[in-house]
Amino acid sequence: MDRGGDKHHHHHPQQLPLAKSARQHGYNEWIFRDVPSDITIEVNGGAFSLHKFPLVSRSGRIRKLVAEHRDSDISRVELLNLPGRAETFELAAKFCYGINFEITSANVAQLCCISDFLEMTEEFSKDNLGSRAEEYLESIVCKSLEMCVEVLQQCEALLPLADELRVVSRCIDAIASKACVEQIASSFSRLEYSSSGRLHMNRQAKCDGDWWIEDLSGLRVDLYQRVITAMKCRGVRPESIGASLMNYAQKELTKKSSLWNPPGQTKVDVISVSTGHEKLVVEAHVSLLPVEKLAVPINFLFGLLRSAVILDCTIACRLDLERRIGSQLDIATLDDLLIPSFKHSGDTLFDVDTVHRILINFSQQEDSEEEMEDGSVFESDSPRSPSQTALFKVSKLVDNYLAEIAPDANLKLAKFLVIADALPEHARTVHDGLYRAIDIYLKAHQSLSDTDKKKLCKLIDFQKLSQEAGAHAAQNERLPLQSIVQVLYFEQIRLRNSLGCSNGEDEHKPMHQSWRISSGALSAAMSPRDNYASLRRENRELKLELARLRMRLNDLEREHVCMKRDMQKSNSHKFMSSFSKKIGKLSFFGHSSSKASTSPSRQSYRTDSKVIDRTCASID
């Protein structure tokens, strides 16, 4: 909106004489210094005493204003919503007076916008300010990536007009094109011939095509997001996109947020964080992450996730991060998983729910990969496929995580169980880590009922405990009686197989004896179908063993009354000693002339589980 006013108004804004500015640029005289001013232009709190003739000769907007108020002889005009500062209008006024000044990357965006606002186009004067600024933008700025970035920074205060004039889009396209060309040139510079005469890429040579990463970090997040999107469309390498995202996040988030500070450093109070800006940065980064795995380190993804949780980012943002982390969880560390909980004071110390969703994403990924391979994993002769290797790594990670969160007094049993049971059964080759975590939980939550303790211990496959862990479990008072029975039972199996090996029996099958007494590790390392096929091959031998064990079970059932009496009269240590002696008297594994009774290959977890369940049921 433009309006006229009395030039003799008592409260005039501060005068900004052009003559003084002209002298600062080397001009010693004012063109119309002897001609009194006939119009005053008010701009952003400042006033310029000028002359109508040079202004109307270049500016269509001022020409229309003067023409509309010809009868009232307008002498004062206020230009509202003028793009840029008063200094920008001063440059436009100089142009109208024919005073030379330099167009640079620091003022070209303002000149493009103010020339459009003042209608300084070719329609009103040849080689007007608008065409001059456009020519500089196209021929100079768009040829340089650094200048384009500088112009974009100037456009931040000129939106949406700078966007409507395509100043922003042209700079973004130029940046994306230049970055792509730089990468191609850098790739060619690293090509070299090998000793055999073949052309190959030297991976050790430093890549100089990503120098633009530091320049982009100075952009506002909305413009930065548009630049990175354009780069991805142009085919810039995912690794370069990831490096730029990390550099930008380091500048915008690590200055304020304690979530990104390395361990041991003083952390800033998260309440003082400017959450609005950081939330926008995190959500923009998640939307820009490359789809390729390993384009960014996994600890960077966890850093984004921690920030997304504390800043209460959108659910879609957090789920996307959890999915990405789950797809490469096998390279994560324990510190990555320890995500602090920022909920109410009565909640757990660490965010267990988020870790559970990550584990679900990992498990679903494993399932989808197996379906896509049409059973090729099971048909392989190797018992440890790549996906099985990832499962093994994640199982160790989960066990360590459980041990870390187990001492938390606010950790409910249901949450502990759901984390421990998130992986498939064949993921754990050894259950030592799981046993350790459960033992820590039992020690920290001594008020658990016997039923809850049994739920916990059902997760452990005692046949997969190492000899040291089995010896510890056999004397662990925190375990329920049912679990101790299983431990002793499998220790008897281990002992008998060891004696069989020392007597030289089945010397033609040393490898079978070796892996069958090693807590079932190799069997668990197989994929489910391979493991099932192995069990089927042993089925005939297991039937004979099962019949013999049933006979021994009858003897055990007759002793359970005596055991209960011992439990009431003695403490746990004395009872376990008595119980061990009674187990020995029952002679679970008596000598037999049958070959089926001495072969170590006749033990199976399925058979053992049935016998133990009946034994423990009779004890209870």
How is this structure best described in words?
With 620 residues, the chain is mainly alpha-helical. The protein has 30 helices and 7 strands. The strands form 2 sheets. A 5-stranded mixed sheet has the order 1-5-3-4-2, with helices on one face. A two-stranded antiparallel ribbon has the order 6-7. Helix 5 (108-117) packs antiparallel against helix 6 (129-139), helix 19 (386-405) packs parallel to helix 21 and helix 24 crosses helix 30 (605-619). The longest helix is centred in the C-terminal third of the chain and has 31 residues, at 539-569. The chain is elongated and about 125 Å long. The model is unreliable at 1-31, 258-273, 373-386, 505-524 and 582-607 (pLDDT under 50).
